[in-house]
Amino acid sequence: xxxxxxLILSIALxxxxxxxxxxxxxxxxxxxxxxxxxxxxxxxxxxGKAVLQRGGNAIDAAVAVQxxxxxxxxxxxxxxxxxxxxxxxxxxxxxxxxxxEKAPAAAFTDMYLDKDGNVVPNLSTEGHxxxxxxGTIDGLVEMHRKFGSLPWKDLVQPAIDLATNxxxxxxxxxxxxxxxxxxxxxxxxxxxxxxYKTWKEGDTVRWAELAxxxxxxxxxxxxxxxxxxxxxxxxxxxxxxxxxxxxxxxKKYQSRWLEPVTAYYKNYRVISMPPPSSGGxxxxxxxxxxxxxxxxNWGYNSSKAIHLMTEAERR
Length: 315
Description:
By secondary structure, the chain is of the alpha+beta class. Helix content is 43%, strand content 12%. A hairpin with a 2-residue loop joins strand 9 and strand 10. The relative contact order is 0.12.
C-alpha cells in the first residue's frame, strides 16, 4: 500500500527563544525556556503556538498543527493517510499511537501481481488500488480523547480558516503544485480544475471543498470523516477508480496504543516508535552499533564520523 503519513513525535512552543551558542561552528539553532513548535510550515507552527498560548497542551497543539499542515503543506500533513505518535508525559509515562493506514478487507496477497506472478509496475504505489484505509482522523481524535484539554472544535477551526482564507505560496510550493498536475489529472475521476493553472510565488490558493470536509470533522469528530458525506464521497471515488476501500473498512478502522521502544545510547535514554514503524528499531540499532566509537572527539561532520555512520547505515 502507498502510505503517505505525518510522523508526530512531539509538539512544543517557540517561546522566549534565542540563538544557541553551544552548537558546532556553522550550525544555527534555537533554544526555548518554555516549549517549541517545529513543523514544515510557519503558518501551521503559528497555529500550534497560539494553541499553547491559550493553555493547550502538547497533544492539543499536535492535533491543530497536523490539521493545519493539511492545508498549508500537504506533503507533510494529511487526512487521507496516517501517522505515528510518540508521547512522554511530564511524569515520565510513555505512550505511542499507531494510526497508520491499513489494508482494506478486500486486499489479498497477490493483488499487485499479474497472472504470471510478476509485479505490475506502479500498481502498489499509484492510484486508487494503492491506497490504504486512512487513519489520521481516528488517530487525532483518539489522542485528543486521551490527552487533549481544549475543545476539539477549537483545534480544527484554524485549519478551516486557513483553507477558507487561502495560503500564499512560496516559490517551492508553487512549483510543487505545478508539478503534481499530471498526477491529479491521471488519478482523479472528479477533476480539481481550480488547481489547473500555472502557479507562481505570491499566488493565494484557497481550498473551499477541503474547508467543508474539515468542517464536518470539526462538528462530527470521527464520524465526520468515517461516516456521512465524507465517507460517501471517498467510497464513490474508490468505485469510480477501481479501488477497494468500502464503508465497512472506514467504519472499522481503529488506531492502536502501543508501548514505545526504549534503549540507552551512552547516558541518553532513547524513546521511539515500535513496529509497524521501522524507525525506532533502526534508530536504536544504529546508535548501539556506533556507541563505542569516540564520535565526539572526531568532530562534527568529520570524515571519520561520516564514514562510521555510513557503514552503520549500510548494515
